[in-house]
Amino acid sequence: MRTRRAIAAFLLALALAPPARAGDATGAFTPYEDILQVIADLTWHLNDDVYRFPSPKDPTGHELYQLALRRIENWEKRYPGRLADVTGFTRAEALERLSEYRAATELYRQVGEMQSPLAEKARAGAERSTAFAQAAELPDAGSDLDASLTALRKKLDAWGALVQKFDGTPYQAVAMAEEERLEGVVARLVVENRRGIDQGPQTAERSLRFLIAKHVDSKNLPEHIMRLGDLYAELARDYVEEHARPLAFDEDEFTARADRALDMYRKVATWDGAREKPEAQGRYAAFDAFKTSVLSRYR
Predict the structure, then answer these.
(1) Average pLDDT, stretch 95-121?
(2) Half-sphere exposure (Cβ direction) of 292: Cα atoms closer than 13 Å
(3) From the centroid of its chain, how far is CA 111?
(4) How far apart are the C-alpha atoms of 75 and 35, rounded to whole Å?
(5) Which stretches of the chain are assigned E, i.e. beta strand?
(6) Are 236 and 257 in contact (CB under 8 A)?
(7) Which among 58, 122, 223, 235 could bridge 111 via Cys, Cβ 3.0 to 4.6 Å?
(8) 153-to-10, 159, 194, 196 alpha-carbon distances in Å
(9) Residues 287, 297, 254, CA angle at the centre, nearest 5°?
(10) Contact 152, 186 (CB under 8 A)
(11) Where are the domains positioned within the chain?
(12) Integer Cα distance of 171 and 162 in angstroms
């Protein structure tokens, strides 16, 4: 129902002016023949689940939200002032999907002040994108690790509230993607600072496993698994450095550590459709060679 109302509003706005030609614009960023063609692909993908699935691509191979934004901007340059409510509203929608919430808010507000069938919907968009902008603009770093983790906790709480607020709407996926990104930052900080944390390796492993368990439906799950493999690989290398003397080295202990990394890499290296698959295949081959080299050194 919402989609039909949005399309009806677009068509009503478009009916107020004749279609404009795009002239001699060429290449991937050409705005096609008229404004309806410019916004058609974007409108079709506005409700895509950006948390579970990768961003849609145009037939030219470009990321669709960015490409639509550039095409609209090019159209506006060729026809300044024409259908400003339609182009402004559509640009705001594209910017929102690109996490440019403050810029989207400003455009929504501009359209909301116009005599346009899109004005009411634009005012609602401005309210929503303002809330997203406020969460996005909270600091996510501090003077030290504790301060950074405290700031991230506050920012995660803000995004978590938005996940709940927009439950059942396409904007919940946007908030979930932001929440996931921040939880990835937390995990990376813990991994990077594990040597200064009590039970650092175990804490780092738990933080990465939490990320995997919570975001099992995310499009980024293969990447999270590979990051856990990276941690296991680093711990295996640490073991070799800390047990360099032949009699201190335990082959079974090293093999168990190395195999944990290889198991994670193997999961992603055999994951059909994962964009991380080639990278994981390379890491698996490299670390397997490292394991073989170490074992031959101590046998």
Answers:
(1) 96
(2) 6
(3) 28
(4) 8
(5) none
(6) yes
(7) 122
(8) 40, 10, 18, 20
(9) 55
(10) yes
(11) 2-133, 220-299
(12) 9
Q: How far is CA 235 from the centre of its chain?
A: 28
First to last CA, the chain: 70
Extract the tokens encoding 8: 């009806």
Listed as own residue / partner, the contacts of 85-88 with beta carbons closer than 8 Å and 24 or more positions apart are: 85/13, 85/111, 85/114, 85/116, 85/118, 85/119, 85/122, 86/10, 86/13, 86/14, 86/35, 86/39, 86/118, 87/35, 88/122
Angle at CA 230, nearest 5°, toward 213 and 278? 90
Give 166-213 pLDDT, tens digit per residue. 999 999 999 999 999 999 999 999 999 999 999 999 999 999 999 999
Per the DSSP assignment, residues forming a β-bridge with 57 are 63
- Rg over CA atoms, the chain: 25
> b/e per residue, 10-23, with b = 16+ CB within 10 A?
beebbeeeeeeebe
CA angle at residue 61 from 271 to 8, to 5 degrees? Answer: 110
Contact 112, 126 (CB under 8 A): yes
Tell me the two tokens of residue 181: 């990104």
3-class DSSP string for 130-193: HHHHHHHCCCCCCCCHHHHHHHHHHHHHHHHHHHHHCCCCHHHHHHHHHHHHHHHHHHHHHHHC
